[in-house]
Design goal:
17% strand; Amine oxidase domain-containing protein; seven-stranded mixed beta sheet; Flavin_monoamine_oxidase; five-stranded parallel beta sheet; Amino_oxidase; FAD/NAD-bd_sf
């Protein structure tokens, strides 16, 4: 009698899931040993990678940057498949355009770089301190009793003000506005930029001690000319037709944490039973779950019951403690401007509550940048985080256009002789909507207050946990494995973190079946 191949089901066709599938399928001898399939709830592959087009330009609705090219597996794949060059213009093809940016207060005053740079340098210095594993003696007082990144940054700003107590007001601005008020607005702008990196609604939610564990690759940060999706398609290209099943949303995962439950399956059925939205079922020996942390947070709620029986407490506690935020992009296509005038790369400094322009909607006020997606593009981009990102998802296109038009008019009122709102007219808008998409329920993870890197490690632990060698109960091993950016201790929130996690879980199964040694 020929024994059946062990069935491995990967839930999710994003970076982690397809990396795992690619590794399992291409490892010598493995594809003949395992019965492998990928089930994806949506109608496309890529997950939180979603390359699209807008206004004739290639854009990214999700993941955008390769964060450091030295050592990045994503960069290597993109380089190997010649995805780093394209004749079609693409988002951020010129880089971040930071050197060309102008910083403007909301009443239209352009701020001189000599005023902005000290605050920029302060903010960068504070972030560098927060990310150091060791700090100098004179930095220790700044770190005492600090719980969050937000509180540390504000403490640093207060210290800066104490050191510059006798500075004069900034010349050229309304006398009512103190230098400190404007510096606070500039500092808040950099905080808003940092929020987009982390997905946290507020930097007060970010755990200070965990920040130093986060790792960055050296080298420049770049975007992928042929689109991030080209990397995903390369990973999927080796898989045979039919191995990836689209439109297969898993609604429940039944598993066997102890041997006594095996009798419920009977007939030598594999230990994991998957239920799909269409009512169908599938059995598996091993399931690699790569859904987002947002979906897991919903899935462990009592009213959802994604796992039956519920996951072990160490797992649910980690899922609960870790943070998962929403980051959305809004793209605006401008009508052609007279005389070829180009929209500037704009850094926006908003006033405090008592001096606000009431025409600007509240959801614009923690948005730091509005700029062309590359030098001479007529497509603009702006980033939204947290509650503002969710609000943008709920707005219609006309409401978004109106909000941006009023903001543009306020900030560029002194920069152009003509009416800025009529000169830079928005004709079309496109937005991402990661927060309310049921397949994601957010964008990426962060280590929240009261959480730690240990929770990220707990996320990566397979179930059931290994039993004692003295135990008579021996449930089938490696029933549920977990991959995705929120399962990597040092590279969470990134595509390369998701990639590494997919390799990790594939290797775990390959070692289990003695295909490789680790």
């Amino acid at each position: 009698m020929v024994s059946k191949k062990p069935k491995v089901v990967i839930i999710g066709a994003g970076m982690a899931g397809l990396t795992a599938a690619n590794k399992l399928y291409t490892t010598a001898g493995c594809k003949d040993l395992l019965d492998l399939c990928v089930v994806e709830g949506g109608n496309r592959i890529g997950g939180r990678i979603n390359t699209s087009e807008f206004g004739g330009d290639r854009i990214e609705m999700g993941a955008t940057w390769i964060h450091g090219i030295a050592g990045s597996p994503v960069y290597k794949i993109a380089q190997d498949i010649n995805s780093l060059q394209s004749e079609q213009p693409w988002e951020c093809m010129d880089g971040l355009l930071e050197t060309e940016a102008i910083t403007v207060a909301e009443d239209g005053y352009v701020l001189d770089s000599s005023f902005v740079e000290p605050i920029s340098n302060l903010f960068n210095e504070l972030m560098n301190i927060s990310q150091r594993k060791l700090v100098t003696e004179n930095e220790i007082p700044k770190l005492s009793n600090v719980m969050s990144i937000g509180s540390f940054l504000r403490r640093g700003l207060d210290a800066y003000w104490d050191e510059h107590e006798h500075e004069h007001e900034f010349k050229g601005l309304d006398k009512r506005r103190k230098r400190r008020s404007l510096e606070q607005g500039i500092f808040a702008m950099f905080e808003s930029i940092q929020r987009t990196y982390t997905s946290a609604n507020d930097l007060e939610m970010l755990d200070f001690n965990a920040e130093k564990e986060y790792c960055m690759f050296p080298g420049e940060e770049i975007t992928i000319a042929r689109g991030y999706l080209s990397v995903i398609e390369s990973l999927a290209s080796v898989l045979p037709p039919g191995l990836i099943q689209l439109g297969r949303k898993v609604t429940k995962i039944e598993w066997q944490p102890d041997e006594s439950l095996e009798i419920e399956n009977g007939n030598n059925k594999p230990p994991v039973k998957l239920h799909f939205a269409d009512g169908s079922i599938m059995y598996a020996d091993h399931v690699i779950v790569t859904v987002s942390l947002g979906v897991l947070k919903q899935g462990i709620r009592e009213d959802c019951g994604m796992f039956n029986p519920p996951l072990a407490s160490f797992k649910t506690e980690a899922i609960t403690r870790l943070g998962f935020g929403v980051v959305n992009k809004v793209f605006l296509k401008l009508t052609p401007t007279p005389d070829g005038i180009k929209f500037p790369s704009l850094q926006m400094v908003f006033h405090n509550e008592s001096e606000q322009n009431l025409k600007i909607p509240w959801w614009m006020r923690r948005t730091a940048n509005l700029c062309p997606i590359y030098g001479n593009s007529n497509v603009l981009i702006s980033w939204f985080v947290g509650k503002e990102a969710l609000e943008v998802e709920s707005l219609g296109d006309e409401e978004i256009i109106d909000g941006f038009s009023k903001t543009i008019s306020s900030f560029l009122i002194n920069s152009h002789s003509d009416d800025a709102e009529s000169m830079f007219k928005v004709e079309k808008v496109l937005k991402s909507q990661w927060g309310n998409d049921p397949l994601f329920l957010g964008s990426y993870s962060y280590v929240a207050i009261d959480s730690s890197g240990d929770d990220l490690d707990a996320m990566a632990e397979p179930l059931p946990k290994k039993t004692s060698i003295h135990s008579n109960i021996s449930p089938p091993p490696l029933q549920i494995l977990f991959a995705g950016e929120a399962t990597h201790r040092t590279h969470y929130s990134t595509t390369h973190g998701a990639y590494f996690s997919g390799i990790r879980e594939a290797d775990r199964l390959l070692q289990h079946y003695h295909c490789i040694e680790i």
